[in-house]
Design goal:
InterPro entries: BIR_rpt, DEATH-like_dom_sf, IAP, Znf_RING
GO molecular function: cysteine-type endopeptidase inhibitor activity involved in apoptotic process; zinc ion binding
Keywords: Apoptosis, Metal-binding, Zinc, Zinc-finger
Pfam families: BIR, zf-C3HC4_3
Low-confidence stretches: 1-8, 120-132, 197-215
Distance between the termini: 42 Å
Strand content: 5-15%
Number of strands: 8
Helix content: 25-40%
Number of helices: 9
Radius of gyration: 24 Å
Protein name: RING-type domain-containing protein
Length: 286
């Protein structure tokens, strides 16, 4: 358009600049992860790269050598070398692919591109993903359930430290709230030394359980109740399609969030309201 003989450009941001994807997969039949894995039935056994890793990164196999292509953007890669990481290679060669944006986020692509140019930024460790590389047990569902019932935070921290040493891991994704609560009770009763808790100088005989609903309720019932609440929280946050991964994709224009990045591309209508999905955007939890 021209005004007074001068051409002007719209300053409105485009959807992709806002992190909104409006493109559909080029090979929609492979939008489902299981279908992509199925395509690797004849994947050469001499190649060390695992088909599961390639499928999760969005690739499908056509049956020729080690050539693969992305179901979403259609980009192809071949001549894989030992040590190659599918997500990184995908973002390196096809940075605008919606599958990368949905699953890893724009920060991941920026870091890969910066590293390729030899300009790795100082905050390279903070790459946005649905599942963090270094899980924080205090963000787990088990801890969330205890906090919901007003268990003292310092007691939970002590219980978390004890459990982490016991299982030799900081990944609490499979830890149940009842197991963590039992450790809290042992700490309160003096069976386990306390490190952070304010009850550190309190005699075991004088300790009162901090779980409010537990003052007049048997411990077994408290644990069972917390376990049910943990399962409910897990179900609420789980993808309604695969029932496994974390829900973090928002459908537009309805605004519902019911799917994980791997399942979202296979949907054309929202499972909740049945409205057509015109675009998607990845959500990040603080």
């Amino acid at each position: 358009m021209s005004v007074g003989g001068t051409q002007t450009k719209s300053r409105e941001a485009q959807p992709d600049q806002l992190g909104i994807n409006v493109l559909k997969p080029k090979f929609p039949q492979y939008a489902v992860l299981s279908n992509r894995k199925e395509s690797f039935k004849t994947w050469p056994k001499y190649i060390t790269l695992q088909p599961e890793e390639l499928a999760e990164a969005g690739f499908i196999y056509g049956g020729v050598g080690d050539s693969v292509k992305c179901y979403y953007c259609g980009g192809g890669l071949r001549y894989w070398e030992p040590g190659d990481e599918p997500w990184t290679e995908h973002a390196k060669w096809y940075p605008s692919c919606p599958h990368i944006a949905l699953n890893k986020g724009p920060k991941f692509v920026e870091e890969v591109q910066a590293k390729e140019k030899g300009q790795v930024s100082a905050d390279s460790s903070r790459i946005n993903e649905c599942k963090p590389k270094e899980p924080n047990p205090m963000d787990s569902l088990a801890v969330a359930a205890l906090l919901d019932f007003d268990v003292e935070k310092t007691l939970i921290e002590d219980a978390v430290d004890f459990m982490a040493k016991k299982i030799n891991s900081r990944d609490f994704s499979n830890i149940k709230a009842k197991d963590l609560m039992e450790i809290v009770f042992d700490i309160e009763e003096g069976k386990i030394p306390m490190r952070n808790s304010v009850l550190k100088n309190t005699e075991p005989a004088e300790v009162v359980h901090t779980l409010k609903i537990g003052k007049e309720t048997p411990v077994a019932e408290n644990i069972e109740f917390i376990q049910k609440e943990t399962e409910r929280l897990k179900e609420d946050r789980a993808c309604k399609i695969c029932l496994d991964s974390l829900t973090c994709v928002i459908f537009l224009p309805c605004g519902h969030m019911v799917s994980c990045p791997q399942c979202a591309p296979a949907l054309y209508t929202c499972p909740l309201c049945r409205k057509d999905i015109k675009g998607t955007v990845k959500a990040f939890f603080a």
